[in-house]
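Appendix B, example 12.
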Amino acid sequence: MWLSDEWKDYEILDTADGEKLERWGNFTCIRPDPQVIWSYRNAKEKWHRVSGKYIRSKKGGGNWEIYDEKMPQSWKINYKDLKFIVRPTGFKHTGLFPEQACNWDFAREKIAGANRPIKVLNLFGYTGGATVAALKAGAQVCHVDASKGMVAWAKDNVAANGLQEKPVRYIVDDAVKFVEREIRRGSFYEAVIMDPPSYGRGPKGEIWTLEDKIFDLVELCSRVLSDKPLFFIINSYTTGLAPNVLYNILMMTVGRRFSCKVEANEIGLPISDSPYVLPCGSTGRCVFL
């Protein structure tokens, strides 16, 4: 398992009964997590001192209950030399997936060591964690997400790091349609980072699941790579997609077009003061030879 275990402003304090107790900087929150199917509590006393809790609704969605009047609408946390704005949202998230830090570190190392210009395509870019990391390492980045609000948040994260003058462009669009246009235009990238949702809607409102679309999606994105690619990262939170599924898909698509080393693994976050780790999905990576 690849762990994101170098956080100082974030930690999982405990997990139990379908929930995780997290610290985001100076504030603690309780959020649902489908992976937490056990009832054992390692730190019972910490559950009673929380800033806020996300409560699911039986009708779908949910809302936050805020217990600490000092908890702001948004605040900044740091990962190493990177800064991110977090805030409770109406769909449970806080605007950051801390487990992705292992992929940020991987991308930064590869970009910094390339000793050549690197263009990165960050698909399903969300609030820009990978965009910030790639810009910090010296890459040129194209950030793509279908949500205008998420792209605006990504711009704020880039600005929080003082990187707004770096070579970055933001695209509000369907990822597949954008990649198809880039291929037709002959616009290629040395690196692709993609973090597609488990469920989504197509450009005409049609519902799709990642299991049905992932192979075609990866095959398509393999065609937007330049003739001297650096790396390719795909992440999945879908429970049914084991690391070896990502490995097989990458080998059958990217690996058929380029000479590369493919790796895939679970990613996770350590649970503080315990021997346990919370699994947070799977990641597949290609490093080109």
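The mean pLDDT is 95. The chain is about 25% helix and 35% strand.
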